[in-house]
Amino acid sequence: MQQQIRASGPAGGIASHAQYRCRRPVVSTRAAVAGGKVYIDPVKKECTAFAPATVANLGPGFDWLGCAVEGEGDTVTARVLPDQPGKVVIDKIEGDNGRLSLNAADNCIGIAAIETLKLIGQPSCGVALTLHKGLPLGSGMGSSAASAAAAAWAVNGLFGSPVSKDELVLAGLASEAAVSGYHADNVGPSLLGGFVLVRSCDPLELVRLPFGGSDPLYFVLVNPLFEAPTKQMRAVLPRDVPFKSMIHNSTQGGALVAAILQGNARLLGSALDSDCIVEPVRAPLIPGMIAVKAAAKEAGAYGCTISGAGPTAVAVVSDAGVGARVADAMAAAFRSEGKLEINSKVVVRLDPEGAKFV
Ligand code: HSE
């Protein structure tokens, strides 16, 4: 199917792809000026996208820094729903043990799809969605963001990808705000890949941070069988922060950014380890977390903290073999000190691409 903008009404016509990409200015085409409706057609009947897990915060980067990691993620298929412009339905969700709502307005893929259709403009059809959850819910690995990112990328793909990944973060942000909290540090990197600094949510301003240098970089992620819903973990955050803590976390946040740009895994791990504002109030709510952090460093990690809102713990290493030993030590500490079983333990690299078609 050819990508096109279909215009109906007295002054209908076909707009170019360039106009399509500048979606908002399209309103100034002849058809819109004449009061006609401009519809945007899909270019395929079905589109499937995968979006990766993310590690947000990275310690002192609370709500403003995150990165995408290889391995598991969520997959969404978007299918054309003919003759129902703008309508979003969820056909099926797999891998959630029946826990997620099939009502589009209450589900992160539904919300992200609705918002993506709005960003696209006036679609001539609706979309039906299927979600396969590869990430556990409430795990601290950006589960809701991966769903939203995959949905946004799949729906956008149906229409020939007229909206940029940066702009689609807005759709993911709307979804995150509804289900987890107003933060883009998961959905940004899940869509864009790599490290993403969220300079501002309103207006949205994202800064991609390339990992420089040639240091190998691995993340050790250990996910215990325990749920820490982001909404609840945000409810415990302090309202006020001592001036000294603000200075400490700002300094360490600066070190995090420097470490990424310089490609310095050791500095990255040590800065990630040093949050004195959020981690101290959340760690006691995750059984064994304090011992897990100590065990990771004892086994050779450069640093360890809570991934996202938890309960997953993340450590940084620059060698896969060391990573395997660190993972074992962290898992053992979750078992012995937290009395928690382990759902998964992996040693993974950065995912440079983010959401992708499959
Ligand atoms: N910045 C968010 C938080 C990430 O820590 O609450 C949640 O994954």
Count of individual helical segments? 12
The CATH class label of the largest domain is: Alpha Beta
Mean pLDDT value: 89
End-to-end Cα distance, whole Å, is 19 Å
SSE arrangement, N to C? EHHEEEEHEHHHEEEHHHHHEEHEE
CATH architecture classification of the largest domain: 2-Layer Sandwich
DSSP, total strands: 13
Radius of gyration: 21 Å
Q: Structural class given helices, strands, pairing?
A: alpha+beta
Q: How is the main sheet built?
A: 7 strands, mixed
Number of domains: 2
Shape: globular
Q: In the CATH scheme, what's the topology name of the largest domain?
A: Ribosomal Protein S5, domain 2
How much of the sequence is in beta strands? 15-25%
Residue runs with pLDDT of under 50 for 5 or more positions: 1-35
Bound molecules: L-homoserine
Helix content: 25-40%
Domain GHMP kinase N-terminal: 114-194
Protein name: Homoserine kinase
Domain GHMP kinase C-terminal: 257-335
Catalytic activity: L-homoserine + ATP = O-phospho-L-homoserine + ADP + H(+)
Provide an overview of this structure.
α3 links the parallel β5 (88-94) and β6 (126-132). Strands 3, 4, 5, 6, 7, 8 and 13 form a seven-stranded mixed β-sheet that branches. The chain is built from twelve helices and 13 strands. With 358 residues, the chain is α+β, with helices and mostly antiparallel strands.
List the helices and strands and how they pair.
Elements: E1 5-7, H1 17-21, H2 30-33, E2 38-40, E3 46-56, E4 65-81, E5 88-94, H3 108-120, E6 126-132, H4 143-158, H5 165-179, H6 187-192, E7 195-201, E8 204-209, E9 218-224, H7 230-235, H8 243-262, H9 265-272, H10 279-282, H11 289-298, E10 303-306, E11 313-317, H12 320-338, E12 342-348, E13 356-357
Parallel strand pairs: 5-6
Antiparallel strand pairs: 1-2, 3-4, 3-13, 4-6, 4-7, 7-8, 9-11, 9-12, 10-11
Helix pairs in contact: 3-4, 3-5, 4-5, 8-9, 11-12
Pathway: Amino-acid biosynthesis; L-threonine biosynthesis; L-threonine from L-aspartate: step 4/5
Catalytic activity: L-homoserine + ATP = O-phospho-L-homoserine + ADP + H(+)
InterPro entries: GHMP_kinase_C_dom, GHMP_kinase_C_sf, GHMP_kinase_N_dom, GHMP_knse_ATP-bd_CS, Homoserine_kinase, Ribosomal_Su5_D2-typ_SF, Ribsml_uS5_D2-typ_fold_subgr
